[in-house]
Amino acid sequence: FELNKEKKKKTLSSGNSTTSNDNPSQSLSNSSSSSFSTFLDKMRARLSAGHFRMLNEKLYTCSGEEAFTYFKEDPSLFNMYHKGYQEQMSHWPQQPVNIIIKWLKDKNSSMVVADFGCGDAHIAKTVKNKVFSFDLVANDPSVIACDMSNTPLDSSTVDVAVFCLSLMGINYPSYLQEAHRVLKPCGWLLIAEVKSRFDPNTGGADPNKFLEAICELGFTLELKDFSNKMFILLYFKKKEKQNFKKKGIEWPELKPCLYKRR
Ligand code: SAH
Fold first, then answer.
1. How confident is the model over 239-259, as a mean pLDDT?
2. One biological-process term from Gene Ontology (predicted)?
3. What are phi and psi of 104, to 5 degrees?
4. N or C: which end of the chain has fewer CB within 10 A?
């Protein structure tokens, strides 16, 4: 999970035999027709992987509002995005969403959770808690489709706000402001983010600046866990007293997370 270094294109040996043929599909022997369909499968996989990377880059380089409109016009793009996302995730030794689920299971299930950028709503489907799941498109009836900088929740009603790999838009501070609004005093803010976005050696943000900005918004840092190779985990609590500020906070820019070609 790092900045793309394009692998050299693999030669498509299975496809070459058909190019000089007038009507390849009719004259192929069984074995070459199966290699032709393998070739087509590879081409399809490559196209959908390319499409996923394009959508992913789009989400990291536009605002949440723009992304919301974009997917509203063509919700099928969202499914395409999530197919690619799941494919990428399947290569991670550990998924941050499972660590968050374990954390929730170890706590009291009466805690109300808001899952910001829930994807397939895995948290809501796995824990006993009441979970409000938000994403740009509702691909499950339990999900509320919205731009998460503007959720329908009342202020100070939630015990845990979760952002699991979802701080994507260029206006990400407004998502954290929204989480601050809906959280009860002393409520938890849990953030899992891609580690490379916080590696200043490769153009990533200074993690301390990110932590400071969140604290200025009105949180205290309870725990930071940088032990995983792929992602960082941050646990904050909303300050009890509302002496937070929203303007004048210096938010570091978070670079997009571009996925490797596989
Ligand atoms: N949290 C899930 C999915 C992570 S993918 C998991 O860990 O498996 C990131 C998700 O955030 C995507 O589904 C994307 O659509 C969503 N997202 C990004 N920006 C958003 C916004 N402004 N409002 C709502 N959802 C958003």
1. 83
2. chromatin organization
3. -65, -40
4. C
Q: What angle do CA 144, 147, 151 make, to 5 degrees?
A: 60
**How does residue 55 score in pLDDT terms, banded at 50, 70 and 90?**
very high
Of the candidates 165, 212, 172, 215, the one whose C-alpha atom is nearest the C-alpha of residue 191 is 165
Q: What is the pTM of this model?
A: 0.86
DSSP string, 108-166: -TTS-EEEET-TTTHHHHH-SS-EEEEESS-SSTTEEES-TTS-SPPTT-EEEEEEES-
Question: Closest residue (by CA) to atom 14 of ligand 1?
Answer: 117
Q: How far does residue 47's CA lie from ligand 1's centre (Å)?
A: 22
d(CA 61, CA 43): 27
Cα-to-centroid distance, 118 and ligand 1 (Å): 6
pLDDT, tens digit, 9 for 90 and up, residues 61-115: 999 999 999 999 999 999 999 999 999 999 999 999 999 999 999 999 999 999 9
Q: How far is ligand 1, taken at its centre, from the CA of residue 69, in Å?
A: 14
190 to 55, 97, 111, 234, 261: CA distances (angstroms):
25, 11, 14, 6, 29
